[in-house]
Amino acid sequence: MKRLALALALAAGVTPAVFATEYTKIQPDKSSIAFAYQQMGVSMDGRFKAFTGQISFDPAQPEKTKATLDVDLSSVDTGSPENDSEVTGKSWFNTQSFPSARFEVTGVKALGGNRYEVAGKLSIKGTTRDLVAPATFTEQGNAGVFEGSFTLRRGDYAIGEGDWSTFDVVANEIKVNVRVTALAN
């Protein structure tokens, strides 16, 4: 009985950080980057089929988060091979010169519950801009699921140059939805 009491006393004195879970291994097959936009007033959807990333996230210390996502822009899937070819060309993503986009987290702020504010730098076609987006985090067994969305203004990154630089055919606002599933270490 004394041993049980001693064990309970020791366990009570252990700080919560000892039991903290850190999520470090992104599972690309359970993650996604999708987008939605308007083309001639019609809602269109797409996604990127290939991206890589690194993450270090501890829900007990979100301010120490480190994460990057690198998106292979040539993996764009608009639902039409003809459109995919157009979008990877020089007027749009220009994947010949700019094969990837990158988002690097610079800060995470807990908002309560499972809600967070994620700040970072988004780089596309040689242009880097600050970005702040709402996100949620949910633990699911030994995995954690991050979900967030933001609106990208394609004109800010010269996505759609020349004849495509106006927004009468393809809207300026692109809604981006990100879901990242990561395993705990």
TrEMBL record:
Signal found in the keyword field: yes
The answer, when asked if Metal-binding is one of the entry's keywords, is no
Tell me one Pfam family matched here.
YceI
Q: Where is the signal peptide?
A: 1-20
Could you tell me which residue ranges the Lipid/polyisoprenoid-binding YceI-like domain spans? 23-183
Query: Which InterPro entries does this one have?
Result: Lipid/polyisoprenoid-bd_YceI (IPR007372), TTHA0802/YceI-like_sf (IPR036761)
Supply the alphabetized keyword list: Signal
Q: In its UniProt entry, what is this protein called?
A: Polyisoprenoid-binding protein YceI
Q: What is the species of this protein?
A: Pseudomonas panipatensis
